[in-house]
Each structure stands twice: as C-alpha cells, then as structure tokens.
Amino acid sequence: MQVISVNPELCTNCDVCVELCPMSIILPSEEGGTPYSPEEATVYCSKCGHCEVFCPEGAISTLFDSTYYQFQDDSPSSLTPSEIGKYMVMRRSVRNYKDEKVEKSTIEEILDIARYAPSGMNNQPVHWTIVHNPEEVKKITSLTIDWMREVVADDIEHPLKPLMPTLISVYENGSDPICRGALHLAFAHAEAENPTGYTDSIIALSWFELAAQAFDIGACWAGFLAIAATSYQPLIDELDLPQEHVVQYSMMFGHPDHKVNGIPGREPVRVNWK
Ligand SMILES: Cc1cc2nc3c(=O)[nH]c(=O)nc-3n(C[C@H](O)[C@H](O)[C@H](O)COP(=O)(O)O)c2cc1C
C-alpha cells in the first residue's frame, strides 16, 4: 500500500515534499516520473500530512485516513507578534472559580484545538479524561487528601511530605487546596510505555490551557493531584483509565471568579548565545 498519491498533471517535480518529509520516505522523481514513496517505507510514515499541505501545486493526496482542511485564501489570518505575545503573557493560573459549569460543547472545542499540539513522530498518544461532574471532582479531591494522610502516617519520605499536614488541615476546615473548588478536571493520559507520552501530554495540556483562555475559561495545573493520581491505588481505580494508561498530568478548570488586572513580574530571560 502507498501512503501518498501524486497527481502527475499537477506535480512540477519541485521536490518540496522530498525536502520536508520528516521520515525521509519520499524520494525524488526518477526520469519522467514524480516523487514517490516506496511501498516498503509505508510503515515509517508518521502521517504528519506535511507533503500534502506544503505541496505548492496541491498535487499530493495522502492515502491514510485523515481530514485535510484547505485554506480558503492565500494568506490565512495570523496574529501579530504583539497580539500573540500579549495573549500568551496574559495567561494566569486560575485558582478561584464561579459555581457555574462549563458547557461540554465548549470543552470539546478546546480539546479540538489541543489535538493539534505537536507530538513525537506525530504519534498523538494523548488521551483525555474530563471530569465534568463536580461531585466527582470532590471525590477525587477527597481521595488525594486520603493519599496525603497515608503518606503523613507512613515512615516513607516524600518530597511533599512537609506540606501535607497543612493541606490536610485546610481541607478539613472546609477549603479545597487540591482542586481549588474547580468544577472540572482534565487528565491527560497515555500508555505508560510510550516514550514521548509524558512530554506530549505536557504540551497538549499547555495548549489546552492557552486555548481555554480564548473561551474565557481559566485553568491551573493540578500538581498534587497528578502525583496522587500516579501513586495512590484508590484514586487510580477511581479514574478507571484504559488499560496500560497512566495519568501524565492534570489540570483544574472552570469559569474564573476574578478579573486579572495586570501581568506579574518574571525572571529576565537567561540565555547563552553561541
Ligand atoms: C507542573 C506544575 C504543577 C503545578 N501544580 C499546581 C498545584 O498543584 N496547585 C496550584 O495551585 N498551582 C499549581 N501550579 C501553578 C503554578 O503555581 C503557577 O504556574 C506559577 O505560580 C506561575 O503562575 P502563573 O501560571 O499564573 O504564571 C503548577 C504549575 C505547574 C507548571
């Protein structure tokens, strides 16, 4: 089976597809032909679709299952550096949420953007578990606190152990120091053995958080929860992920309860130029 079909009527043999193929499986045209991908190379195709979308003549169609969106004009609208810079530096961790659920359709729109995040060899290993039911978020918070109680009671050292008694007592006094009263959670998970599963999940979650901002949805990385979700069996059981999957990281999200009025200071860029 071939992975691409090249229309000889349109192909000008510019070999852009040959240059761009990340797996180097598109070979230059031979006498009188067009660039081609040998059948034995099919297995190495990462299905990134670059040959199709970068072909200046629109001569290439990928033969694997994919949905290709063709720009409707020559210059797809793009943000200026100043606009994108402002949008990105305005992102803040949101830790206070309105008691108002986010529509599932909005979450689907955010996830639909996050699925375009880059992944190692375009493997796209990230799966999502979205906790939409606020009662389930409470249960997950309570299980995370149970995990902390066990760690505190145990002799085993844990880097977060010194923090745990305070977090437990905040929880016992009626606040939620784990999910901050958010109504929803996003877990990115992938197969435990996937070599880029963790990195790809972190990138996807970063995209999720940035995309969410455009829908006036705030998010915050849920670090305590993520650690509990990989180490505490009752919580792992509660999440009921597909077999072989592990939580790679988690985020809380919802409608922000407060307006942000500025951009806080950060360290200056530290860079070595060579
Ligand atoms: C890996 C990671 C884990 C985090 N875990 C938590 C957490 O458990 N609870 C929390 O309130 N914030 C958490 N945060 C948010 C950070 O505290 C926050 O990003 C940092 O203070 C900078 O603030 P900003 O995101 O508004 O720029 C986490 C952030 C990252 C990147």
From TrEMBL:
Residue ranges of coiled coil: none
Which branch of life, at top level? Archaea
Which keywords does this chain's UniProt record carry? Flavoprotein, FMN, Oxidoreductase
Q: Which cofactor does it need?
A: FMN
Question: What Pfam family does this protein match (any one)?
Answer: Fer4_9
Q: Which InterPro entries match?
A: 4Fe4S_Fe-S-bd, 4Fe4S_Fe_S_CS, Nitroreductase, Nitroreductase-like
Gene3D superfamilies for this protein: 3.30.70.20, NADH Oxidase
Q: What are the protein's GO molecular function terms?
A: oxidoreductase activity
What the entry lists under SUPFAM superfamilies is as follows: 4Fe-4S ferredoxins, FMN-dependent nitroreductase-like
Question: Which residues are in the 4Fe-4S ferredoxin-type domain?
Answer: 2-31, 36-65
By sequence similarity, the record places it as follows: Belongs to the nitroreductase family.
Name this protein carries in UniProt? Protein with ferredoxin and nitroreductase domains
Record the organism: Methanococcoides burtonii (strain DSM 6242 / NBRC 107633 / OCM 468 / ACE-M)
Q: What is the lineage of its organism?
A: Archaea, Methanobacteriati, Methanobacteriota, Stenosarchaea group, Methanomicrobia
